[in-house]
Each structure stands twice: as C-alpha cells, then as structure tokens.
From TrEMBL:
Pfam families: DUF2752. This is DUF2752 domain-containing protein. Keywords: Membrane, Transmembrane, Transmembrane helix. The keyword Transmembrane applies. It comes from Mycobacterium yunnanensis. The chain crosses the membrane at residues 72-94, 101-122.
Length: 137
C-alpha cells in the first residue's frame, strides 16, 4: 500500500512568527538561567514525584542549557535519549511534511512510544551509568 499523501497547507506567517518567538524566548531563558541550580523557576517533575523514577524528559532542560553552552558531554549525561531522538524526530517530521505524507502514521507512533518506554525503564535500572544529579533529590 503506498503512503498516504495529503495536500501540504501553507503555514501562516503569523503562526510561524509566533512559534519562532516562543521558541526563541524559551531557549533564551534556558540559556541565560542555569537549570542545574536550585531556584531555576520550573516545578519538579510530577512523574518523578509520583513514582520516584526519572521520566523520559528528566534532564531535558539541563541538556538544552548544556547544548546552548557547547557542553555536549554534560548534555549526554543529562539526557542522551532526548539529545539524539528529538533532532531525528524533528527532521523526519519536516521531511514528511514537505513531501505531503501523513506526519505520524500508526507505525511511527508505536516506535516513539516503545522507544520512550524502553528509555524510561533503562535509565532507571540500578547502576545505569548516565544518572543525572538532581537538585534537592
């Protein structure tokens, strides 16, 4: 069965500008403030509070801060899964959008969910080498 194609809709300049502004503001905040320090301004992870486990995104703000400052070794320690998976997913989605294919077919959703669950379990195994340090926890 050939892939499902859809008509590519143009993105409104207003929407594109709003998204670019929000992304720039978020990255500026994360880059200028230090999420490694206490009092960064974000609440603790609810998944970690409920389960005691690191969620798939735990360390993501610290990883982003480290990438913005060019410290890729620290970014790997903070959250290697997001460091690799998010750019790959973004490139894949852009490629599918540009070719007019359905963005997230069922098989892709299954792969993302399985990879995320596997990462959550693996990173919480005792002795896992890339365990980020948590402020106050």
């Amino acid at each position: 069965m050939p892939p499902t194609r859809r008509a590519a809709r143009p993105i409104s300049p207003r929407v594109a500008l709003a998204n670019a502004g929000a992304l720039t503001g978020a990255l500026a905040y994360i880059g200028l403030r230090d999420p490694h320090a206490a009092g960064f301004g974000f609440p603790p992870c609810p998944f970690r509070m409920l389960t005691g486990w690191n969620c798939p995104g735990c360390g993501g703000l610290r990883m982003t801060h480290d990438v913005l400052h060019g410290d890729f070794a620290a970014a790997v320690v903070d959250n290697v899964f997001m460091l690799v998976a998010l750019p790959m997913l973004a490139l894949w989605l852009v490629a599918r959008w540009r070719t007019g294919l359905k963005l997230m077919p069922t098989s892709a959703v299954v792969v993302v969910v399985v990879a995320t669950v596997a990462w959550t379990v693996i990173r919480n195994l005792p002795g896992f080498p890339l365990v980020p340090t948590f402020i106050g926890g």
